[in-house]
Amino acid sequence: MREIDIVIWGDFPPKTQTGISMVNAMVEKTPLQQGKSIIKIDESVWQYSLVRKIILYLVLALKLFKTLISKRCRILYFNFPLSRFGLIKLSFLLPLIRLISLKIKLISHLHRGDLRVYSDKSSLNKHLVKFCLKFIDETIVLSEIYIADVKSLNSKVKVTNLRNTSSIERTITDSNQIYN
Questions:
Q1: Strands 72-79 and 38-42, how do they pair?
Q2: 7-46 pLDDT per residue, tens
Q3: Surface-to-core class of residue 116, CB atoms within 10 Å of its CB (0-12 exposed, 13-18 middle, 19+ buried)
């Protein structure tokens, strides 16, 4: 069984051109330059109809599970969504990923600064966010002011402040040190 350092699950250019997809590309590039083994699972399906999106998400989830089962993966890196569809998707996938392996470090990246506003909009939003955070080992935020927002929803999750994109290399390297 071949060991994989990082599985990156999310949107990537050129299919998706957003800040999140650009960061995912940087997260992929930095460890590759360090000689780490990476598998990316591109879930850029936003352009399809709802039915096709759901089918493609199921296919991608199966690909993710197959990858995690067949490879010894150290880290799964993904975006923490602030949409009901994204959180519902995570609330099904994260418990299954934890069943596959307790050793996989789950790192989410929160790209938006309105976690508290989003979670306070409804009790469903708050429950979904809290439920998903239970399974995550570390959440990366883009400003120190958002650390308290994450901690107010789950005090046990490690929160890392990523002040700028040059810190991605340090964050991924620090996360790898846990397993070395």
A1: unpaired
A2: 888 766 566 556 565 666 666 566 555 667 777 888 877 7
A3: middle
